Amino acid sequence: KSILVSCPQENVSTKFLAPYTTFCRIHQKSITCLDISSGGGLGVSTSTDGTMKIWQAANGEIRRLLEGHVYDVNCCRFFPSGLVVLSGGMDAQLKIWSAEDASCAVTFKGHKGGILDTAIVDRGRNVLSCSRDGTARLWDCGKSACLGVIADCGSPVNGIAVGAADNSLNLGTPEKAPSK
Asked: How many separate domains does the chain show?
């Protein structure tokens, strides 16, 4: 039903779902983002149908509908615990959700354009977002506050990644791909 690929020396593992798992029962339109919880039991996805859903990874059974973004939701990501979800949308809002009861615990506001990608720093004390407004922001989850802004890059920041070993930050814009 799944394949687990791991490298114990690096303390890294990835679980791939069985190929027969289908998502047509979860969303009616194209999936824009998808993530699997660290334990592999749950999935979260967003779609061009304007929905964000949490579902059982084994069979696609929908567990929760997460509602609260005004427009399309572009990105979703589980926190390492697998109990919390981070999402960013075209409404320029970054939200933290409970995967257990679908409640929105925190809404971060500060971007002036749609959020295009997110990243979780370490275990989730801080999160990152990047936006069509040309900025990336670092947020403190506990204080619900913006800790810093990487100023206007001159074009949308489409992607963001955090290095596992040193928490280095990588941004991608149309003019410059993230460094390797």
From this structure: 1
Q: Coil, strand, or helix at residue 8?
A: helix
The enclosing domain of 168 has a CATH number of 2.130.10.10
Give domain status of residue 180, yes or no: no
Instruction: Find all residues with CB under 8 Å of 160, minimum gap 6, and list them.
Output: 117, 118, 119, 128, 129, 130, 136, 169, 170, 171, 172
Global confidence as pTM: 0.79
* Inside any domain, residue 179: no
Spatial distance between the Cα atoms of 83 and 99, rounded to a whole number of angstroms: 5
CA 168 to chain CA mean position, Å = 18
pLDDT in tens, 93-123: 999 999 999 999 999 999 999 999 999 998 8
Residue 162 region, left (φ>0) first, then alpha (ψ -120 to 50), else beta? beta
Residue 159: inside a domain: yes
Question: What digits encode the pLDDT tens for the residues 4-62?
Answer: 777 777 777 777 766 555 666 788 888 889 999 999 999 999 988 778 999 998 888 99
Q: The domain containing residue 16 runs over which residues?
A: 2-172
